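Continuing the batch. This is chain 6 of the set; chains 1 through 5 are on the previous pages. Same settings as before, nothing changed between runs. Recording input and output for traceability.
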Amino acid sequence: MKTSDADILIVPGLGGSGTDHWQTRWEGKLSTARRVEQPDWTRPVLSTWVERLTAEVRASRRPVVLVAHSLGVATVVHAAPLLPDRAVRGAFLVGLPDVERPDMPPEIDPAFSPLPREPLPFPSLLVASRDDPYCAYDRAEDFAYSWGSAIVDAGQAGHLNTESGFGPWPEGLMRFAGFLRLL
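Output for chain 6:
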């Protein structure tokens, strides 16, 4: 699959991925990409975030490929059973936060936990870091296994966000292109 064959939905996490974040850069670079906007990026409510994602998938006219980061990953896995059959061709998931940890930021709706463990109904790839402050690698690996996701070990990459040095993230874009070829 080529990017021009799909609606690429960018699904940010807490804070909405600022101007230097790789998701925002990809959104500007990929002609068929658009952001799933949330009414409040600072106080995420699971039901609202899932509803917005579901509405964007339903509004798409081409096959959908999801590109989620952080709490956007949790949103995707919660929304997966509600998405129209065969509308989503794949999900590129990056920097899963372990929302089941007791030290998650208090502004995150507790309904995000627990994360679903059912296999995702579409192909997916989870990129995880060995030193992500929000999710231990072994937990990310365990979730990936439950979801039927391929996992990519990003090494010592923090949360794979702007703060950990991932602005443009060309390696990620190459990995995404490889993922698209498999769809």
